[in-house]
Amino acid sequence: MPQSVGEAAVVAPPVVPATVRQPGLVLTDHHFDVPLDHGNPDGERIRLYAREVVATRRARDELPWLVYLQGGPGFPAGRPLGRENWLDRALDDYRVLLLDQRGTGRSTPANRQTLPLRGTPERQADYLAHFRADSIVRDCEHIRARLTGGRPWTVLGQSFGGFCAVTYLSLAPEGLAEVLITGGLPSLDAGPDTVYRAAYPRMERKSLAHYARYPGDEDAARRIATHLADHEETLPDGTLLTVGAFQQLGILLGAGDGSHRLHYLLEDAFVPTAAGPRLSDTFTEQAAAVLSRAQCPLYAILHEAIYAQDGRATHWSADRVRAEFPQFDGHTDEGARFLFTGETVHPWMLHTHPSLRPLRPVAELLAEREGWGPLYDAARLARNEVPVAAAVYHDDLFVDTGHSLRTASGVGGLRVWVTDEFEHDGVRVGGRVLDRLLGMVRGRSEGAGVGRWGCRCAGLCPHPPLPVTGGSAPGPLFRAAARCPQTPDGLISARPAFEDRGPGRSPGIGKGRGWGKPAAGAPPALTPAPAPHPHCPPPPNSLPWAAPITAPGAPMRRRIPLALALTAILATTATATATATPQHPQPPQSVEYFTGPDGHPRHTTVPASPTPPHPLRPSAPGDGDVTPIVENGPVATKLDVVFVGDGYTGAEQDDFRADVRVKWEKISAVEPYASYRKLFNVWAVSAVSRQSGVSGDPVQGVEKDTALKSAFFCDGIERLLCVDTGRVESYAAKAPAADLVVVLSNSAKYGGAGYNDVVSQVGYDGIATASSGHPKSDQVAVHETGHSLGKLADEYQYDEYGTYTGAEPWEVNISKLPADEQAAQRKKWYRWLGETSPDGGAVGAYEGGGYYPKGLYRPTENSVMRTLGREFNLPGREAMIAGFHRHASVLTGTVAPGAEVGREDRVEVRTSAATAVVRWYADGREVFRARGRKAVTPASLGIRADGRGHVVTATAVDATDAVRDPELRRRLTGSLSWHVTR
């Protein structure tokens, strides 16, 4: 094999093609030399290994190929031990290729022993930058040309292998006959921070569900953690077992038998010794088998890079995001829960794991690396014609179900099966999962829809099973079943199901359990379920859903839209039907209201919205129309604010849009909105009401028939302006995206509300209501965004709350620590102490906040989080800027990142704020004369027409003085690159 200078010392293993036999199997070795960089086919080459597996009885048959893409990243393909699990089913139809992805197994290795042979850490990092899904896909195409003579093949992708399969559909769909994905539908646009913000709550749910199954395990885990905090323990491979490393044993909870394995591991933890109780060899040996990275170093080194595709560095995302979830660090606090984590990588692992320690420099470089290119082509995926079937495991520990379903809705022809019968390793539990997926891509009815949902968590079911109501209607059928039937092993296994059985057929829960059939053409009724057990994962209708499926018997490439009315969970009763049953009441909703334009807020609870969001009034002209008010760029790169109007008739929709413009001007005049106006898109969604005005205006007792049921005197409080949150959700979902939602009610009367605990399928954190005609009602929305975007606490207090005695709050603007202790411990807003704040006075520690008059401190005397009409204080502004950039990008371009451009093509970028400085690079070298320019041509940067490929990169750093947290400042960067090819 040709070797480059950088790998001259690497001895390539001899190529010894071999064919061996196992009972029922014939196994054949394959070796392939492929380019390290497929963009430079004449450059360095590396070796790939793959094992062909075929059933003995079919070894001479002309069979189609199925290539298996292993999960990871950084794991080799499994080594077969006969016809087991999914392989047994696959060998009935295919000749299977088990690929050791680059750097793993018998392919050219990449580990602590071989990587130093490449030279400096910088060269090692450049080498590993070619080990992501795009390179793996091109490896597959290189191999396919060799093995199949150019014929398309089937891909089965498990976990990260599923990510690779979606990249395959984006880059080379012509090479694919079918795609089967198990537990591996990635988000097409979520960066690593978004991925981990969704992951930590799942880890918490899995931990609590485990303790509900094995109640004694939390005490056992806490005892081990306490021991590790006071004693140094190492695993047999030399790994230092810290509390954080011990928490990572929670990765077991992602497997079907993982809870049992974790339980048995914990019960063997201690043995008595002369030095007192110590961890047993049995425990440390088993823990090492789970935690060691010696056989898969790339899993740690490249893990976050698999989510990076917007040019930004990952900056140890899982470690940074963990700080937003302090409950994972509360195991030493009295009364706090001990929570396990899961699939997260942290910089401390480079010190505690011997196999990773030599790779620390290259890992740090990869964490800071910018310019990661896109892995998925959303436009091409939407046009996809390759048959695709995906199994999505409900509340999968490793892959967020909501992200997977959003992706399912964006891939043409994809059929999705959502099931709670398996955990992430479901494909390895016999051949049932693979058989189901094969049925789906081949159009069999048993593979025609979405499987069972549920919450697999132990505990007591709060309600008996609810009877199902519904019926058949043209097109797909949907059903929502009881959430909490009890299973023999004591688990709560809620199994609402969604299936498509075709027109005129009545789906049921298992055999012999079907629906009643309503009048022809009637939509199916969704029966809302009772509130879930607190340890249960979100029910199915808390997840975004718009997954296209294909009806049984229809051509595979003909897409039928499937749109579930998921917002029924926000309602307490279903539309009455002939078979309707009494409903269990939903818990009340918490709302924040304001007694006057300059008053302190108050909290109360109101009954949950009494009506379901469907059916709406689609017959009203203009109902549901979406009007762009401000467009600054694609929704994926901007923070999208959605205004929904209520109490506006069809003739008043122009007035509604004018009111939106006025309100947004006032909101966006408040800092830091004013400095970041370019970060926002603003959408107005028309909800056409039958009557003009709002109930309760001007006096109690006035009733108006409006689309969203806006009403003053909610819960007897005049200024509390309530809405039907389910209907709001339905209208907000019509906008291209919704990060903030404001309901503008057609009234000049002062009032508003903030819904603090709304569960949104669209993705926003809450709803603010405000009257359109009052000049100060916009301040309600400003305050509420302090909660939803800034994650800020309220800074006011109630005298009856007394003195706070709990743990240190996680919100950045309240603390148990007075100013001197903050400064000494370098915590909370210590960087701002003594500075003059825009809301008046100096930043310090003022007692009273978080509803408590004593025991908690706030940064300033009177910010907007305490009294309406004020400004955000300095710590609050910094938190808001952080919130803005959770949804939007510092730098965006008018040309898609990663696209090919010509030397004379204009490349233009936009920044989020005037303080962001743009720098331009040609092939990695800054062109200083172009600094600060927003548009260039590659030729103006010195790119020559020499026939070679070149790269143009733009970077921007927001240099605002409103940010002092160095970690946040590192995140206020952006990088975009383009390929110059002509």
Stretches with pLDDT under 50, minimum 5 residues: 1-11, 445-585, 610-617
Q: What global shape is seen?
A: globular
Average pLDDT, rounded to a whole number, is: 81
Spatial strand sequence of the major β-sheet: 1-2-3-5-4-6-7-10-11
Mind describing the biggest β-sheet?
A: 9 strands, mixed
Number of strands: 33
Any idea what the radius of gyration is? 29 Å
Question: Structural class per helix/strand content?
Answer: alpha/beta
- Measured as a percent range, the helix fraction is 10-25%
State the distance separating the first and last CA atoms.
33 Å
Strand % is: 15-25%
The number of helices is 22
Key descriptive features of the protein:
982 residues, alpha/beta, nine-stranded mixed sheet, eight-stranded mixed sheet, 22 helices, 33 strands, globular, disordered N terminus
Tell me what you see in this structure:
The chain has 22 helices and 33 strands. With 982 residues, it is α/β, with parallel strands linked by helices. Helix 2 crosses helix 13, helix 3 crosses helix 4 and helix 17 packs across helix 19. The relative contact order is 0.06. The N terminus is likely disordered.
Task: Describe how the helices and strands are arranged.
Elements: E1 19-22, E2 25-35, E3 45-55, E4 65-69, H1 85-90, E5 95-100, H2 121-128, H3 133-147, E6 153-158, H4 160-171, E7 176-182, H5 192-213, H6 217-230, H7 243-247, H8 258-267, E8 270-271, E9 278-279, H9 281-291, H10 297-301, H11 317-322, H12 349-352, H13 360-367, H14 378-382, E10 388-393, H15 401-408, E11 414-419, H16 432-441, E12 450-452, E13 456-458, E14 491-493, E15 497-498, E16 589-594, E17 601-606, E18 626-630, E19 639-646, H17 653-667, E20 680-685, H18 725-732, E21 740-745, E22 752-755, E23 767-771, H19 778-788, H20 819-825, E24 846-849, E25 852-858, H21 874-887, E26 891-893, E27 900-901, E28 907-911, E29 916-922, E30 925-926, E31 935-936, E32 950-958, H22 966-971, E33 973-980
Parallel strand pairs: 4-5, 4-6, 6-7, 7-10, 10-11, 19-20, 19-21, 21-23, 27-33
Antiparallel strand pairs: 1-2, 2-3, 3-5, 8-9, 12-15, 13-14, 16-17, 16-22, 18-20, 22-23, 24-25, 26-28, 28-31, 29-30, 29-32, 32-33
